[in-house]
Amino acid sequence: MGFRFRRVIPLVPGLVYLNLSKSGISFSFGKRGAMINVGHGKQTVSVGVPGTGMGYRAQVTPTLIGILIVIALVVGGAYLLFPDIVGPLLHRWQPSLF
């Protein structure tokens, strides 16, 4: 049995995480149910159904990761600037987050 090490440090609690492991450092962006992980050679997008243990993970290109991060930053910035307008729109998408 091999030695394993994994530590997750929240940088922006509930949204951005620094992942430390034996194989290297990576960053995760997102919330429970939808995550983007970037680091040490692999970029993945994970989508799951919270509380069920079911999910799907796939490797994607760095370009797609960049596009997804930009979209997340734009939506997050819009929510910070106009919470009364953006909040109800996001609530329709996934009520458990907002």
Condensed summary:
With 98 residues, the chain is an alpha+beta fold.
Question: How does this structure look, described?
Answer:
This protein has one domain (6-93). Helix 1 (62-81) packs across helix 2 (83-93). The protein contains two helices and six strands, in the order ββββββαα. The chain has helices at residues 62-81, 83-93, and strands spanning 6-12, 16-21, 24-31, 34-39, 42-49, 54-59. By secondary structure, the protein is of the alpha+beta class. It has a six-stranded antiparallel β-sheet with strand order 1-2-3-4-5-6, with helices on one face. The protein starts with 5 loop residues before the first strand and ends in a 5-residue tail after the last helix. It is globular and about 50 Å long.
Topology:
Blueprint: E1 6-12, E2 16-21, E3 24-31, E4 34-39, E5 42-49, E6 54-59, H1 62-81, H2 83-93
Antiparallel strand pairs: 1-2, 2-3, 3-4, 4-5, 5-6
Q: Shape from CA axes?
A: globular
How would a crystallographer describe the biggest sheet?
6 strands, antiparallel
Instruction: Work out the helicity level.
Output: 25-40%
The helix count comes to 2
Keywords:
single chain, alpha+beta, six-stranded antiparallel β-sheet, 2 helices
